[in-house]
Amino acid sequence: MINVCITGHRPNKLYGYNMNNSKYDCLRKVIYNVIEKLYYKYNKRITLINGGALGVDQIFARESIKLKDRYNSDIDSIIKLILVKPCMNQDVKWDNNSKREYIDICNNMDDIICISKEYTKSCMQKRNIYMVDNSDIVIVVLNNSNNNNNDDNKSGTSNCYNYAKNKKDKDIILIDPVSFNVTIIKKDEKKRDIY
């Protein structure tokens, strides 16, 4: 069984809050293709871990649900979906549509882990650390052309990516949300190859 988590930007750092934007369709397809390849590569046994946040986390959650629904009837298939919430009231400031989407995602998870009862400054980082520490592969949706941008380097996505890079036992799959290129950094080589 392989454990895979994701980190990535919120909608304001991607293509905006209109999830019908065609760029989101492209990102959904790329994410689905990556997790389906991993599913087959690891003998149809995969745990998919998301952080529940708006944007990439929820896209990953939806594509994970789609993968599980597609292969649900395969008796050799084991697909486990886990949501790691930073705090109990993660969705407290979200609009009603986002809250409904979040509830539906939660209802489709096999397990929900909550890091903190209430929001603290550190609960997001603790959530990211938990996800990376409990994964073999970390998918990172990060605009590589913005890596020199000071604001982006302070983001939760960049922090999570840097934490995963410093772990010697993780493969990292990078998805560029502008070009939709997918690359992998192998734990044993630390060299980029096209995935």
UniProtKB/TrEMBL annotation:
SUPFAM superfamilies: MCP/YpsA-like (SSF102405). It comes from the Bacteria. Gene3D superfamilies: 3.40.50.450. This is Uncharacterized protein conserved in bacteria.
